Amino acid sequence: MRRDIGNLRAGALRGLFLCLAVALSGPLAAQEGRSVETRFATGMMSASYSDAITGYESVNYFLQARAGQIMAVAFSASNLSAYFNVWGPGADTALFAGAAAGDRFTGVLPESGRYRIQVYLMRNAARRGETARYRLDLRVSDAPPAADYADGLAGGPDWWVVRDLPPRDRLNLRAGPGTGFGVLGKIPEGAALRNLGCRMSGNSRWCEVETPGGGLRGWVSGRYLREGAAPPQLHLRPGGETEIRFADGCTLLFSPAGKQVAAGASCTPDHFARAARAVAPEGRAQGQ
């Protein structure tokens, strides 16, 4: 009898420890939530919020919306471990999970009710007591977003720039929207890509892109794409020098060996960096 009771106690303790281990291993750290009721100004269907969270804090933004409306959310933060999720009315599963899908959401809402946008830190950052300053832009409309954005999840700017890759890593360009498709090429940090539209594949956002010269076309993970500017135009002079022209008027000149020899007065350090990438052998191969 005592042995049976001991076995029951041991089993109960093992079950308790297992539950604790599962609870502590999940990625979502948010426990201490603040709530914000989203209010749109008269005649407006958008709002912007700037705030900060530390440790296990989270902020929940609530808003009423109708089925068929289009919700667009854009998020930027000072801490790479900060993300947002979108939850439907009374839902147990997130409609959009930023940790897997990136920092932008655009989609047609499936039902009417009270939606929740949750901002939080991943558990590893929360445990260290890290802070994230962030900006959250929300928009709800009855029609597709502005003309330079495609409908629904095919949204985004005309050009992307590759950002936040792990050190010395490159972004896989795949034959289709998912990791099960073959790799067509590898895109470096800072590269410009023409946006051809995005879609969800499982819980991940994938975008069809093309290199500026049209040499490569395929699909990349949306979490490494940020809104970018059109790449500069390259003009090869008869003497072998390369002239780099930006749309805002900045012009730079590079020697045949790839060294900068002249720059216009309006050029900035960002122009210099983008021009250097464009004249590098890799940049030329991609048409940048």
TrEMBL record:
Which residue intervals define the domain SH3b in the entry? 169-225
- What Pfam families does the record tag this protein with? SH3_3
Signal peptide region: 1-30
The entry's keywords: Signal
What is the name listed in the Swiss-Prot or TrEMBL entry for this protein?
Answer: SH3 domain-containing protein
Q: Which organism is it from?
A: Pseudooceanicola albus
